[in-house]
């Protein structure tokens, strides 16, 4: 009797092993050995801000190459911004000439605007199909060589002492931050030339746009409202907190603690929380105990902008 039970158990085990081996063979047979996709890092979604002004239309008609940029223009004419866009248009044509002949082109016509476009300038070519050398002003879309990196200045040893927090928090709702800050003209031009309207941004969005002007590569960090900004070998973890109308105007303690945990698991060398809310005194103590993190709060954003020293 015992021998029969032992034989039954042994048979059952063999059957299970055989089924598992067959399943493994089927999985192995279905593998694509040439597929190396698992070696690739996960895709990240880049910030829509690009290196150049966004082009919405380009075509050649007779002797004219017409370039249209999707950029928000100021109400009044800005000769410097117009000149910057003309130089950008020349670079667009320089890139396009490899796929579209420009042998008969004698002039580049530049249009810009958001919704409704208008002509902002023209560039005459030295001769048909011959483009001028790259202009120095074409590099104005990157401010890394014109001003100090605003993020680096935040981590200098005396920044915590210089930047104070607002202890008295007003009880009424906060006004739009854009109404309370001063933006250097050069910075505003650079942002518009990249397709960013400085008039419509929240505080955190404004700072993220500034990063692109200083050659930071900004990508999503996975969670909502979190980003990783990379420049050279330095990575900065960023969390943004935008004030909603009617919400508490001061940064909550739970959000501060959440940011500290997220930074600790991000692997970044430094971390910044951007918000257009007021900063509580607690952030002063956090920065003192953890020098790798900073809080750019409502009362600190103007100093952040001024640190770039752009006229």
Q: Could you provide a short overview of the structure?
A:
This protein is α/β, with parallel strands linked by helices.
Please provide a written account of the structure.
The protein has 311 residues and is of the alpha/beta class. The chain contains nine helices and nine strands. The strands form two sheets. A five-stranded mixed sheet has the order 5-6-7-8-9, sandwiched between helices. β6 and β7 form a beta hairpin. α2 packs parallel to α5. The chain starts with a helix and ends in a 5-residue tail after the last helix.
Average of per-residue pLDDT values: 77
The largest β sheet comes out as:
5 strands, mixed
What structural class do you assign from the helix and strand content? alpha/beta
Gyration radius over CA: 28 Å
Shape: elongated
Order of helices and strands: HEEHEEHHHHEEEHEHEH
Instruction: Indicate the low-confidence ranges by residue numbers.
Output: 23-50, 158-163
- Oligomerization: single chain
Main β-sheet, spatial strand arrangement: 5-6-7-8-9
Number of strands: 9
The number of distinct helices, counting runs of at least 4 residues, comes to: 9
Distance between the termini: 97 Å
Provide the β-strand percentage band. Answer: 15-25%
The level of helicity is 25-40%
